[in-house]
Amino acid sequence: MRVLFVEDDDLIGCGVEAGLRQAGFTVDWARDGHEAGLALTTTTYALVVLDLGLPRVSGMDLLKRLRDAGKDVPVLVLTARGTVLDRVGGLEAGADDYLGKPFDLTELIARCRALLRRAQGRSVEPIRYQDLTVNPAAQTVDVGDTRVSLTSREWAVLMQLLTHQGIPQSRSSLEESLYGWQQEIESNTIEVHVSNLRKKLGARLIRTVRNIGYVVEKA
Fold first, then answer.
1. Closest C-alpha to 100, from 121, 79, 118
2. Mind telling me which CDD domains this protein's record contains (predicted)?
3. pLDDT range class, residue 126, cuts 50, 70, 90
């Protein structure tokens, strides 16, 4: 899942970016509201983690612009402003959740995952598809009674396809879910991940759509 992280504090930013990547997210880190606004116009994100106290364009203004444009990407607001009025203001401006500074990184990651599940119309219930059982909260996959180990990028490709059943996903959209701004994309990386998923989960799970990409048929 590709996340836009907006934070101007380098110390906080480095820690959160590293933690999100370790948790399996693809992260683009914007350091001010203007940079974040440009990113949101050119890239599709599964989630935005947004600090309010930003230079150039404030986090609150960015959030209002995002919602005024009709974009419903889930937004987790981070801020040192801890009053009830601040929390209410952020939520009324369109935030989906609110976490005050200082915060625990494990809680931040848990809240991100919860927002993603909610946005995809899921609770903590596992996804069942044919003989697969996929647990988004624990990030586990079982084929029948057998637990299968996936890399973070294999997991990201699988979730992109399972949450868009019946809708072919282009190679470029799958690449966007895997790679951030500073990461080099290898020419055959999607093919490799799809091949590995077929070996681990079954050759018939993912169908190639000629000249488009890949699809998991609707259950």
1. 79
2. REC_OmpR_PmrA-like, trans_reg_C
3. confident
**C-alpha dihedral (68, 73, 76, 82), degrees to nearest 10:** 10
> What letter would DSSP give residue 25?
-
Residue 87 has pLDDT above 80, yes or no: no
Residue pLDDT, tens place only, 135-146: 876 778 999 999
DSSP calls for 134-171: EETTTTEEEETTEEE---HHHHHHHHHHHTTTTS-EEH
* DSSP SS3 for 200: helix
What are the structural domains of the chain?
2-119 (3.40.50.2300), 127-215 (1.10.10.10)
Stated pTM of the model: 0.67
Q: Which residue has the higher pLDDT, 141 or 188?
A: 141
